[in-house]
Write a structure and sequence with these properties.
12-stranded parallel β-sheet; single chain; 6 helices; alpha/beta; about 25% strand; about 260 residues; 8-stranded mixed β-sheet; about 30% helix; globular
Amino acid sequence: APWGFCLVVWSSLCPRSSLALFSSLATRSTDSKMAMRRLAFETGRALRETGQALEHLGLRVQKNDVFKQNFSRHRTVMGVYDKQPSISTDSYVAPSASVVGEVSLAASSSVWYGAVLRGDVNEISVGGMSNIQDGAVVTVSKHNDLGFPASTYIGHYVSVGPGASLHSCTVEDGAVIGSGAVVSEGALVEKNAQVADGAVVPAGGRVPAGQLFAGNPATYVRDLTEDEIGGRRQACEDIHGLAAEHAHEFLPHGTAFRQAEEL
């Protein structure tokens, strides 16, 4: 009887979650493991929403409308069912960035303001000391009809400029993707190569190691000099240092900020 009562209350307070849960129970899937993962996810979501709904109900009884106060629901790091981000402890994700799904950030990497890494249907891997700058977008495909990997791989010491777009591609160590550049599905940017600002690397395209490509579609411009390539590691390290300064300004929720101000 108590369980039946709880089920009725939950169904009335959380119709969206209850419908999702019952649909999951009623749907037959050829992949039993995926069905169980989704069932577990919907059950957890239902319990969380039930707790919130009961808290709101209690506040209504007390004639307390504090729960109606506006607040940001933005989640910087978020999983999608069983696909969860893996983020190194010393990497930096800006408060307005979005890291979603199966995304791995290696040591000393950084994701800047407004950038989006969405690994909801496949994997995104970002190497150590690499940076995804403001407003850049990195996405994946579920599969690639051209036979290339549908995931997105970004190597070590890679800089992805502001507003760049990378989709199901491979960017090797030391490469630079310019501001507003587009690297399309199945494309390969080899080690120490550079895609100029606003350039478009077409699907399945290749930028050879140590070369600069520009234009739409991107074509060869010239070979990069040793000085240009040699300065990239230091540039990435400088960005990592700047990220550490930004991270210091965004303290966790609570009263830790008071202790920091007293120092």
